[in-house]
Amino acid sequence: MTDKKTARIAGLWYLANILLCVFAIMYVDEKLSVAGDAAATIESFRANGVLFGFGLIAYIAGFVCFVLMVGALCRLFKSVDSRLTRLMMAFTLAGAAIALICKLAQTAATAIPAIEPQSNTAGTLLAFYTNGGMANEIFYGLWLLPLGLLILKSDLIPKVIGILLLVTCICHLIDFGTFFFAPGVSATVQPVLYAGEIGEFVFVLWLLVKGVKTRKQGGEPGG
Predict the structure, then answer these.
(1) Residue 221, phi then psi, degrees to nearest 5
(2) For residue 21, how many other CB atoms are within 10 A of its CB?
(3) Mean per-residue pLDDT for 73-87?
(4) Is the overall model pTM greater than 0.70, yes or no?
(5) b/e per residue, 144-180, with b = 16+ CB within 10 A?
């Protein structure tokens, strides 16, 4: 398989991950959740079981696509630095595992009839999902660190994209830090942090449209 084909496959997996997770988190969760009211949120989830189920499937599928995408990137960059590719995959698997465990908590609160919506158990499970998702910002950021360094070490993709991904990594880590340690400023800085995460979207578009430079014989990229 050529590098360009591998890059475009990675781009497709990445795009699928974004679309599925946007549907699951920004549409289903946002539409059905009642801010500040765990009991009403669980009742909403249960009353809209079909939509919640589609959101659950999309969420799981999104992280499967995420792992497959990073696997393709590891194949692409393995000859650049195998240690960094292994580190990238380790951060990815850790983040995906935490995300799915957190989603399991939300699903348990919704799907287990014995859990009353007004109970402390229900509130704890929903809080675990929310706080766990924000804690996972660490790994959403850290997997981009080796990726950015790999791009900077290679000539496969413009180095400016590697720099943008490192900025995105920092933004995810700041998002984690402000949420847990400076909640008073979290909402204020979030728009800036979201803008700083544009590197991921630039990277996806580059993979889909341009792919990577073709390597010359001997492993060095050519034009």
Answers:
(1) -65, 145
(2) 18
(3) 96
(4) yes
(5) bbbbbbbbbebbbbeeebbebbbebbbbbbbbbebbe
